[in-house]
Amino acid sequence: MNNIELIHNLKKGDSNAYSFLVDTYHNMLCNYAYGLTNDRDLAKDVVQNVFINIWRIHLKLKDDFDVKSYLYKSVYNEFLNQNRNLKSVVPLDKKYIEALSQVVEEEDLESIEKLLTLIRREIENLPPKCKRTFLLSKQEGLSNIEIAEYLNVSVKCVEAHISKAFSILRRNVDSKIERFLFLLLGVNKY
């Protein structure tokens, strides 16, 4: 079955076309995903999620849709999503609890809430590109390289936006910012 027939049959909801798609690409995609994850079970989960997504969007497929390219790109994107969710949280949890304990001992809850509100407001007031880059890094947990690829900019540009964000935040919020940024975004140094 060629690409055009496959797309046409998928758009019709043909389960045989979907089975053909899975049979044709499953092993190749699992091998590719394993190369990214070094975990066979996670690789299978990644590929399964991609195939589920293909079925969800099958009615929206365009006739000139390149199935193979889409599948490989989808595996890579799904890997990034899974990887972001699986990053080790145990050391971070310990630091978070320590920071939270220290802050609670030193501050009353009303002061903490005011400072957190101030930080959130200052983040919202960052220049748009700076804010987006900063949040991708600190809230979404993407590396500078991942952000650069996602935004189609250089790594130096990403680093500059993050540095600018911290500079603005340091200037506009008092010296307790490091602990509160850590509590708010998981940031413990800048």
Description:
The protein starts with a helix and ends in a 5-residue tail after the last helix. The chain folds into two domains: 3-86, Rna Polymerase Sigma Factor, Chain: A, CATH 1.10.1740; 90-185, Arc Repressor Mutant, subunit A (Orthogonal Bundle). The model has no long low-confidence stretch (mean pLDDT 76). The longest helix is centred in the first third of the chain and has 23 residues, at 15-37. The radius of gyration is 22 Å and the shape is elongated. 78% of the residues lie in helices and 0% in strands. The protein has ten helices and no strands. It is mainly α and 190 residues long.
Query: Based on helices, strands and strand pairing, what is the structural class?
Result: mainly alpha
Tally of alpha and pi helices: 10
Q: Portion of residues in helices?
A: over 70%
CATH-level-2 architecture of the largest domain: Orthogonal Bundle
Class of the largest domain in CATH? Mainly Alpha
Q: For the terminal residues, how far apart are their CA atoms?
A: 54 Å
Major β-sheet, in short?
none
If you average the pLDDT, what whole number results? 76
Model regions low in confidence, pLDDT < 50 over at least 5 residues? none
Radius of gyration: 22 Å
| Number of discrete domains | 2
Instruction: Name the beta content range.
Output: under 5%
**SSE string, helix = H, strand = E?**
HHHHHHHHHH
By DSSP, the count of extended strands is 0
Shape: elongated
CATH topology of the largest domain: Arc Repressor Mutant, subunit A
